[in-house]
């Protein structure tokens, strides 16, 4: 139940993370969109603002030119009518400004062919008007003011001024149209930016709302789930203690049953072995009697009696003896496993390199005979565990590597180990005959063996190793291919916890 609640919490947590990631991604996209819209709108606004400002500059330049032109014309007329030098000086000042002002207009309208053409026309008209007005000013200055006034109505300056005014009005109208268009574009760009900003803001608010609701619901569900989990955890310790007690009791019953069964099997087996010895003695006496009968009265000895006494009985007794000896070894193995299960674990600090070295020394004579080697690769982790059990585990696996060697090559056994968190992983690698992958699990079963049965044994060694490894809080497995050797991996705690082990 607790596991189910924990799994539900993990599933809800993963679902929340996915939803929040999608929400964050959507919000991020919205912010990117808003940023792009802001950048694009700002860029367009700047361009439109520059164009609007340019239109205002052109319009102001045309207006200044028009004012200067009218002031020069007014000063000319005042000079013709009064002959006063004040009007002449004012005329000269305005005439001096007309050229630069028209040049400014021309420079501002270089990007507009229509306006550039209008400026060129105005320049030609201004040149003609200036010529006419210059003559009238010269006549007045030289004392022919009456003649200058008389010519005023017939010279071309009046028509030229009208033509210039018309051209200037057309230019102003064109700039006003451009100004209106550019102002409209600027307003549209601003409206687009505000729309994009509003949409992005709406998306961000939507994402924030969805995230808030989701987190609120998840927090509420998480609180409820944790409350249920806490409720289950409150009783979990009692359940663990109860089940551990049940397992310990069951383990004790299994060990007691194995011991009783083995003990009870041994009693009739001893009787069978005793009667087998008596049969063997009787068979020998019968064979001696048959020999004397053949010497004194051979005619009474039949072939059946001779075959039974000399072949059938010895063969049957041999089969019985072989079977009882095998049964005796199997019962001893069961008793050994049973006694090992009842033995108290005594943790102590074990130098694994020294332990492996001791095992190698005990096998050195056999290794010298077959040209084999046992090496330690690197530094082996130090364990705090039961010395007798761990020594039996490593000795059994290493002895098996020597026992099931490949005759085609010298034995090479390498032991390595490393720490993985609070555990140690040892590997015992050999170059022996290997184990079929289909038998990787069965080789650890009691009385089960793999491959060609050309070596003595009852199939209890690796079963014993696995039982010992489990008692030490570890596991053992094998990786192997036929003809390519085997690697046994032993995973053990660095420090055994005897409180969690079966008694």
TrEMBL record:
Matching Gene3D superfamilies: 1.10.287.130, Histidine kinase-like ATPase, C-terminal domain
Q: Which chain regions cross the lipid bilayer?
A: 19-39, 193-218
Entry-linked PANTHER family: BACTERIOPHYTOCHROME (PTHR42878:SF15), TWO-COMPONENT HISTIDINE KINASE (PTHR42878)
Q: Which reaction does it catalyse?
A: ATP + protein L-histidine = ADP + protein N-phospho-L-histidine
Give the protein name, as stated in the record: histidine kinase
GO MF assignments: ATP binding
Asked if the record carries the keyword Transcription regulation, the reply is no
Q: Which UniProt keywords apply?
A: ATP-binding, Coiled coil, Kinase, Membrane, Nucleotide-binding, Phosphoprotein, Transferase, Transmembrane, Transmembrane helix
Q: Which residues form a coiled coil?
A: 219-253
Domain Histidine kinase per the UniProt entry, residue ranges: 260-496
């Amino acid at each position: 139940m607790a596991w189910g609640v924990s799994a539900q919490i993990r599933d809800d947590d993963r679902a929340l993370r996915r939803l929040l990631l999608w929400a964050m991604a959507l919000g991020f996209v919205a912010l990117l969109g808003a940023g792009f819209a802001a950048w694009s709108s700002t860029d367009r606004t700047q361009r439109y603002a520059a164009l609007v400002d340019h239109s205002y500059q052109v319009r102001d330049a045309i207006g200044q030119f028009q004012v200067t032109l009218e002031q020069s014309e007014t000063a000319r007329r005042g000079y013709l009518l009064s002959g006063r030098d004040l009007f002449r000086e004012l005329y000269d000042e305005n005439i001096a400004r007309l050229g630069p002002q028209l040049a400014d207009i021309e420079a501002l309208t270089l990007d507009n062919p229509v306006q550039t053409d209008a400026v060129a026309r105005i320049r030609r008209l201004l040149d003609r008007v200036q010529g006419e007005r210059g003559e009238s000013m010269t006549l007045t200055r030289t004392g022919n003011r009456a003649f200058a006034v008389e010519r005023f109505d017939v010279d071309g300056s009046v028509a030229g001024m009208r033509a210039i005014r018309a051209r200037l009005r057309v230019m102003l109208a064109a700039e006003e149209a451009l100004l209106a268009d550019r102002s409209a574009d600027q307003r549209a760009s601003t409206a687009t930016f505000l729309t994009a900003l509003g949409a992005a803001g709406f998306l961000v608010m939507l994402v924030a709302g969805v995230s808030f609701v989701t987190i609120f619901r998840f927090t509420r569900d998480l609180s409820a789930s944790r409350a249920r989990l806490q409720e289950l955890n409150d009783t979990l310790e009692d359940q663990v203690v109860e089940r551990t007690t049940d397992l310990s009791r069951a383990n004790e019953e299994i060990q007691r049953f194995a011991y009783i069964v083995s003990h009870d099997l041994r009693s009739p087996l001893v009787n069978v072995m005793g009667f087998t010895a008596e049969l063997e003695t009787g068979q020998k006496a019968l064979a001696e009697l048959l020999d004397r009968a053949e010497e004194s009265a051979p005619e009474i000895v039949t072939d059946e009696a001779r075959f039974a006494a000399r072949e059938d009985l010895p063969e049957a007794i041999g089969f019985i003896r072989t079977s009882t000896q095998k049964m005796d070894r199997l019962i001893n193995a069961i008793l050994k496993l049973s006694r090992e299960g009842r033995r108290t674990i005594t943790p102590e600090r074990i130098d694994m390199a020294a332990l492996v070295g001791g095992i190698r020394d005990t096998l050195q004579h056999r290794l010298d005979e077959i040209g084999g080697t046992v090496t330690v690769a690197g530094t082996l982790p130090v364990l705090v565990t039961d010395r007798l059990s761990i020594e039996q585990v490593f000795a059994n696996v290493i002895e098996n590597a020597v026992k099931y060697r490949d005759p085609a090559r010298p034995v090479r056994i390498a032991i390595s180990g490393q720490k993985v968190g609070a555990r140690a992983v040892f590997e015992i690698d050999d170059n022996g005959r290997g184990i079929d992958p289909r038998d990787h699990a069965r080789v650890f079963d009691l009385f089960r063996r793999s491959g060609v049965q050309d070596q003595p044994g009852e199939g209890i060694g690796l079963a014993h190793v696995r039982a010992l490894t489990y008692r030490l809080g570890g596991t053992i497995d094998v990786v192997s291919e036929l003809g390519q050797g085997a690697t046994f991996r032993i995973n053990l705690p660095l420090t055994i916890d005897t409180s969690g082990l079966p008694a």
